Amino acid sequence: MKQTNLQGERRSDIISNFENQIARYTDILCEKFDEICYAEHIVPHKGKEIIPGMEYEDYVDIKMKDLKDLTYDQILFFLNNTKLPNGRIEKFKNFLNSRNIPFEADLFTWVN
Predict the structure, then answer these.
(1) Phi-psi region at 12: left, alpha or beta (left = phi > 0; alpha = psi -120 to 50)
(2) Which of 34, 53, 32, 35 is nearest to 43 (CA)?
(3) Is 62:101 a contact under the CB 8 Å cutoff?
(4) Which end of the chain is more exposed for a tag (fewer CB within 10 A), N or C?
(5) How far is residue 83's CA from residue 63's CA, in Å, rounded to a whole number?
(6) Cβ atoms 55, 75 nearer than 8 A
(7) Whole-number pLDDT of residue 1
(8) CB of 38 within 8 A of CB of 75?
(9) What is the signed CA dihedral for 64, 98, 12, 110, rounded to 10 degrees?
(10) Residues 97, 95: Cα–Cα separation, whole Å
């Protein structure tokens, strides 16, 4: 886990960062001024894309006002202890649902 500071963020941590023969995968948790964001970024290697140049971000955004007693550190602990290869984001959504914490989630794609 590596902590980074990107513009407009109060705190951010890289949960995982690896690549295989298909793509580079990076999972990041960020604390912004009014929300906590978890995102899984996938950048397919050239020739492995469904659409050339397409990248993916599967994300969950939680408003700070909706966190109840949940903290950034507790979310970080949960994510760090939810192992790959698959399902971390779904387990996180289920975790939030079990605590009745509303969130926004979606898959965002773009082509470079």
Answers:
(1) beta
(2) 53
(3) yes
(4) C
(5) 25
(6) no
(7) 46
(8) yes
(9) -100
(10) 5
Note every long-range contact of 6-11, with CB atoms under 8 Å and residues 24 or more positions apart, other chains counting. 6/30, 8/32, 8/33, 11/72
Per-residue pLDDT reduced to its tens digit, 62-105: 999 999 999 999 999 999 998 765 689 999 999 999 999 999 99
Q: What are the tokens at 27?
A: 């999972």
Q: Are strands 35-44 and 11-19 parallel, antiparallel or unpaired?
A: unpaired
pTM for the model = 0.84
φ, ψ at 32 (rounded to 5°): -105, -175
- Spatial distance between the Cα atoms of 97 and 102, rounded to a whole number of angstroms: 7
* Residue 34 · residue 42 · CB < 8 Å: no
CA 39 to chain centre: 2
Instruction: Identify the bridge partners of residue 26 per DSSP, sorted by sequence position.
Output: 17, 41
